[in-house]
Structures are given as structure tokens and as C-alpha cells.
Amino acid sequence: NHLKKSDPVLRAIIERVGPCRMEFGPAEFHSLAEAIVYQQLNGKAAVTIFKRFAALAGEPLMPEGILKLSDEQLRAAGLSKQKSAYLKDLAAKTRDGLLNFARLPDMSDDEVIEHLTRVKGIGLWTAHMFLIFSLRRPDVLPTGDYGVQAAIKKHYKKRKLPKPDIMEKIAKPWAPYRSVACWYLWRSLDIK
Length: 192
Hints:
The chain is 59% helix and 0% strand. The protein is mainly α. Helix 3 (29-38) runs antiparallel to helix 7 and helix 8 (109-116) packs across helix 9 (124-133). The model has no long low-confidence stretch (mean pLDDT 95).
């Protein structure tokens, strides 16, 4: 109701999409490792590679399971040298206590971003997705997300993909529910 009242463009999208059915995952090591595997891959390829990787490392993914794998095993699962390094960095930092998943729920959004981005391969986009879909934070605006940019361009009649400052300005009335607004923007791209 807040989003419908605060933005007529979003009201029309909400009416077309229907009730919010946002799905969440747990705020744990497994979710973050999975996010790294999925980075910059399309759906089917990502699922296939993730299944092969998880079969080797064990499910749920744990630091020890990843650290026991050789570079050759990771490569055979379909992971690039770079992603393998990211996963091993995540696993080592978690094992050594430098990344503490138990503390994340008590941290501010900015603190979570700072904590997660210590890991090689985890940037702002991955941290934003973790905040939204694992920590269930209601007011995150992932300005680096292509889907959100594309939806804003389309629905707010922009000539090109909007820069973060433009996105912030458009999204200001959505607070404190910018995560939900983004979910609607993503879904709007799937509807004819």
C-alpha cells in the first residue's frame, strides 16, 4: 500500500504483477557460496555447474568441503580459475572467523556490505542480493543491478539505463520498502 500510494508508476506495476511473493534463502555460508557460483551465468548453465560443484563439495556447502577440493576438481565442475579462487577465499575467511555469519543479522546494511566485500569476488551487487534475499532487509536499492536499471528505464521513460543518482531520486518515495519495489521491477520485466 505504501508503494502504491508513493508512486503512480509503481502502482500500475503492482496492479499488473499482483501480490508480492518474494522468496528468501537462509543467511548462511551456503547461500553466499551459491551466489558466487551463479555470478554472470545464465540460469541453466549456473544450475548445472552448481549441481556438479555441490556434488563434489557436499551439501549444504561448508568451508571445509570447498577447501578440500583441488583446482582441477573445481575446473572439472565448470568453475573458472577466478571463481574457484573466490570460493576458496570465502571458505578460508569463514573458517578463520574473518567472516561471521552469526553476526550479520545484528549489523547495519552498510556494516554487512563492508563485512561481505572483504571476500574476493563479492562486490556490492552480491552484498545487496544477500541483504535482500538472505537477510530480508526491506529497504535495499541495488543500483548496480541490470534488471532494476532496465525496469526503471522502461517504466520511467528514460532514454538510457539510469545512473545510481537518478535511481536514488526515483526510489526515494519507496523508502522504507525499496527491496519490495525492486522485486516488483524485476517481475515487471517478465510480464508482457
